[in-house]
Amino acid sequence: KVKKENMEFQTEVNQLLHLMIHSLYSNKEIFVRELVSNASDACDKLRFEAISDDSLYEGDSELRIEVEFDEEANTVTIRDNGIGMTREDVINNIGTIAKSGTKEFLSKLSGDAAKDSNLIGQFGVGFYSSFIVADKVTLTTRRAGDKPEQAVVWESNGENGFTLEDTTKEAHGTEIVLHLKEDEKEFANDYRLRSIISTYSDHIPLPVKMRKRDEEGKLTEEWEVVNKANALWTEPKSNLKDEDYQEFYKHIAHDWENPLAWSHNSVEGKLEYKSLLYIPSKAPFDLWEPEQKNGIKLYVQRVFIMDDTKNLMPHYLRFVRGVIDSNDLPLNVSREILQSNHVVESMRKASVKKVLGLLEKMAKNDKENYQKFWNEFGRALKEGPGEDMANKEQIAKLLRFSSTHTDSEEQTVTLEDYVSRMKEEQEEIYYITAETFASAKNSPHLEVFRKKEIEVLLLSDRVDEWLVNGLQEFDGKKLQSVAKGELDLSKFDTEEDKKEQEEVDKKADGIIKHLKEVLGEKVEDVRVSHRLTSSPSCIVLNEQDMALYMQTLMKQAGH
Ligand code: ADP
Ligand code: MG
Question: What are the Histidine kinase/HSP90-like ATPase domain coordinates in residue numbering (predicted)?
Answer without folding.
Answer: 27-184
